[in-house]
Amino acid sequence: MGTWIKRIFGAAVLGIIGYGAFDYFQAGYHTRPEMPEGAFSLSYKNGLRAILVGVPNEKETRRYFGHPQDVPFYLKDAWSFCAPPEGEERAKAAEFIKSRNMPGERFEVVCKIKADNDVVIRGLITSVPRL
User: Fold this and answer.
1) What does the pLDDT read at residue 22?
2) Is the overall model pTM greater than 0.70, yes or no?
3) Which of 34, 40, 47, 64 has the fewest CB atoms found within 10 Å of its own CB?
4) For residues 80 and 110, is the Cβ–Cβ distance under 8 A?
């Protein structure tokens, strides 16, 4: 009887370790570049992988939602650096939030990928209060 309990316990431990490794690689953390001081990262199942810079980490009080944009297939699994909108982007961000009309939703950052001399907008990230 004790042997079976040990085997079941061992299988459960191996299952948890295997799931953790799968989740780590699925989220792409093994390919994440160096992060600047004060930055934090988010990885979404929709493919958006973001390193947020210049934004306070409020994961305990807010939920972050990623809104990916259409990009070429070779950029879909790339990490993007995200920062608050500036200049023209600020007006577009306000328009985006106004069109969504969700209570408590706040626009956080615009995510961009630099490919050679081109800058591609990878997606947008919004947040809502964690209730």
Assistant:
1) 85
2) yes
3) 34
4) no
